[in-house]
Design a protein that fits this description.
With 295 residues, the protein is of the alpha+beta class. The protein has eleven helices and ten strands. The protein folds into two domains: 95 residues, Sulfite Reductase Hemoprotein, domain 2, CATH 3.90.480; 139 residues, Sulfite Reductase Hemoprotein, domain 1, CATH 3.30.413.10. The strands form two sheets. Strands 5, 6, 7, 8, 9 and 10 form a six-stranded mixed sheet that branches. A four-stranded antiparallel sheet has the order 1-2-4-3. The relative contact order is 0.09. Bound molecules: iron/sulfur cluster (SF4).
C-alpha cells in the first residue's frame, strides 16, 4: 500500500471512530480473545505450601517474587517478568542462548507461552507458584533474574548511534553510565517506581516523551548531547514530559540523573512516586539543581 493510500485509509477509519468513544464491537473483542485461549490451569495450585516456605526462608527469592512477578486471575499462578536489564548489558538485549532458554522455560512452566513487553523485558504469563523457585534458579543461571522490574534500572533505551542509522546520539553508553551509578538494589527500591526512557533521535523509539525522566539524544557538531524532560507517563495518568532546560553533554548524564534523584528524595511526600513529586512541585526545584547558574 502506498503512503497516500495509507493516509486515506487512516483518515477514513478516523471518520468512523472519532465520535464513538473507541468502543470496540463485541465481534472484534471475541476475535481478539481467540488469540488468547484459556490456560488449562490446575484448580488446586494454591494449595501447595512449598512456595511460601521458600519465600520465608530465602530473602533473595522473596525479593525477586516481589519485584519480578505479579498475581494472575488464577489462584496459585503468577506472571513472571524475565528481566532483560542485567548489569553490564544493553537494556533489552538477549542472546540466542538466553532466547533458547526462555523458550524452554515457557514450554516447561508457562503453557508454551512467552511474551515481549514494550519495556524491553519478557513475560512468562502463567507460572504455577510451586514452580517459581525452580524457575528462579534457572533464570539466575541465565542472568535473567535481576530483581529490578519497575525500578530506575529497568529503563527503556533504543539502540541509538551504536546500531541505528537514523540516530543523532548514543543511547547505550548513557544507560550503562546510569546503571553503574545506581548499582545498589536497596537504593533502587528506596527510590521506587521510576521510568527512564531514552531515544537516540526525535523518532522516539525509546518513548522519551512519556518517561518520568525522558532523555532525547541530539547531535551537536558531531557530539552526543541530551535534552531532558520530566513528568511524562504512558499509564492511565498519561502525560507528556516537560522540558527541563538546555541539552547536556554525555559525560554529565549520570551526574544529572543522580541530582534529579536527590531532589526527589528531598522533596517527596509520603507515598509519592518520582512522577507524582514532579507534578506537585513542577520542574523548578529540579531545574535549580541541574542548572544552578540559571537559578
Ligand atoms: S529513536 Fe532514533 S536512534 Fe533510536 S532506534 Fe529510533 S530511529 Fe533509531
Amino acid at each position: 500500500m502506498g503512503l497516500d493510500a495509507f493516509r486515506e485509509r487512516v483518515d477514513a477509519e478516523w471518520e468512523v471512530i472519532r465520535d464513538t468513544g473507541l468502543k470496540l464491537p463485541e465481534q472484534e473483542v471475541e476475535r481478539m480473545k481467540g488469540f488468547f485461549p484459556a490456560f488449562p490451569v490446575d484448580a488446586d495450585a494454591a494449595s501447595d505450601a512449598s512456595f511460601a516456605e521458600h519465600e520465608a526462608n530465602d530473602p533473595a527469592f522473596a525479593r525477586w517474587v516481589k519485584n519480578n512477578t505479579v498475581e494472575t486471575k488464577h489462584d496459585g499462578y503468577r506472571s513472571v517478568y524475565v528481566s532483560l536489564k542485567a548489569h553490564g548489558q544493553p537494556p533489552g538485549d538477549v542472546t540466542d542462548t538466553q532466547l533458547e532458554a526462555i523458550a524452554d522455560f515457557a514450554d516447561e512452566y508457562s503453557f508454551g507461552e512467552a511474551r515481549t513487553t514494550h519495556n524491553q523485558n519478557m513475560v512468562l504469563p502463567c507460572v504455577k507458584q510451586a514452580d517459581l523457585f525452580a524457575l528462579w534458579n534457572k533464570l539466575r543461571e541465565q542472568s535473567l533474574a535481576m530483581p529490578n522490574i519497575g525500578t530506575l534500572a529497568d529503563m527503556i533505551c533504543c539502540p541509538g548511534l551504536d546500531f541505528c542509522a537514523l540516530a543523532n546520539a548514543h543511547s547505550i553508553p548513557v544507560a550503562e553510565a546510569i546503571n553503574e551509578r545506581f548499582d545498589d538494589l536497596d537504593y533502587l527500591y528506596d527510590i521506587g517506581e521510576l521510568e527512564i526512557k531514552m531515544s537516540g533521535c526525535m523518532n522516539a523509539c525509546g518513548h522519551h516523551h512519556v518517561g518520568h525522566i525522558g532523555i532525547l539524544g541530539v547531535d551537536k557538531k558531531g557530539e552526543s548531547w541530551y535534552q531532558i524532560t520530566l513528568g511524562g507517563s504512558a499509564s492511565n495518568d498519561a502525560s507528556l514530559g516537560e522540558r527541563l532546560g538546555p541539552a547536556v553533554k554525555q559525560e554529565d548524564m549520570a551526574d544529572l540523573v543522580e541530582n534529579l534523584i536527590k531532589v526527589y528524595l528531598e522533596e517527596r511526600q509520603e507515598g509519592e512516586r518520582f512522577v507524582d513529586t514532579v507534578r506537585r512541585t513542577g520542574v523548578a526545584p529540579f531545574k535549580a539543581r541541574v542548572y544552578p547558574e540559571a537559578a
